[in-house]
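New to this. Help decode the following:
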Amino acid sequence: MQARRAGLGGRWLLVGVLLVGAAVLTGLALSGTTRVAAEELATVAVTRGNLIATVLGSGNVAAEQTLNLVFQTSGTVTDVLVKEGDLVQTGQVLARVDSRNAQLQVISAGSALASAQARLAQAQNGNARNEDILAAQAALTSARAAYDGALAAAETTDSQLRAAEAAMHKAQAARQQAQAAYDKVASAPNIAMLPQSLQLQQATIDEQQATANYRSLLQTAAKDAQARVDSAAAQLAQAQANLAKLTTPATASDLTIQQAAVSQAEAALKQAELALDNTALTAPFAGIVTQVNMVPGSLATTATPLLKLINRQPLHVDLKLTENDVAKVQLGQPVTVTIQSLGGWATNGQVTFVAPAAENVNGVVTYIVRVSFADSDPRVRVGMTADLSIEVAHRENVLLVPNTALLPKGTQRVVQVPANGAATATAAAKQITREIEVVTGLSDGTNTEILSGLSEGQEIIALPDSGVRSKAGTGSIFGGF
């Protein structure tokens, strides 16, 4: 009997020890879960405020217009009237080439026109007067002077052509010499660092420039000079014929010829005046001079850009956006433009162009969007990198939650809230959460608009954990083992 009691006592003692141990372990497990939950399940209140959605991008500042200017005629530069950095207006004269020959052509063409008009009047009057004869003689003298002037101009052009050809041959020889020197060291491992490489490169550039100058003179100046000689010869022949016919009664055919001569003289005068205008290089638009590549005495041709002009009003930035971002962008949307290299500099712009078609580069599809802005700050230079923030949507007085509080659930979004719904719930109570489906709207990358499912001031879990127990999954107190 005593042994049996002793055995029963041992069993009860063992059960007691087990129960105490289980209680201790359960308490330790629960206390540990409470600490984790208290740290992980911090809450935040649903607030109301304004939300601005933006599309971000960057690009380089560019000018509205950029143009390399060339003379419309060849000649020697006599005046350079601007320097780099100057502001110029539309039509302002920037430089000139030698205009003496063009001025003579205008005078000659004017005299030829006056003579042609006098001959027409004489033919219309039907009698040859002394003053008409004198006028015809003057016209002949003028035509002969124009012809001589055209011949002189052609000789000058021929001299320039020979000089340009000689310069081209000299440049070719220099390039061949540099090529020979380069070939001697071409096998050297550091060929790119040797002076022969740079000398060959420079000689090649010089040859190309000299060849271009020669071809330009050959194609334009020589042809123009010959055309002027031919025109002057025709006018001289006409003047000679007119003087010979002054004493002959005018016929219908004579009147037609004289009228044609007047028309031809008028066209010749306009052509001469245009040639004179072309000796001046003028600004086609208002802007800033960024490059001047000439000095008095330089040879100007129609193929050599000698001055660069840009128009900063307005400036613009072209950026590339993905199809998801470009779908949100529309013409006229406001844009904030910043340039990090200028510290706190910022200005406002707007979207002025959205490409209707995509660019596909190596499988990457993007769309060009242009943002224009007006700015006269001289610190803003063309080519600088600008950061752009395009405002694509705006909401006022809407419910807001942090993006971190949202969890995906299929195609929907949910937030977690304490099961008791109280902001002052204990840590143990906060461990029990429930989910609320919400309908979301606009997001700015930090906060998201809530269209339905929550109310202002409601407490939600700031950093929800999809693995935290909800009401439906509490289980037994031993579930932790």
The two ends are 39 Å apart (CA to CA).
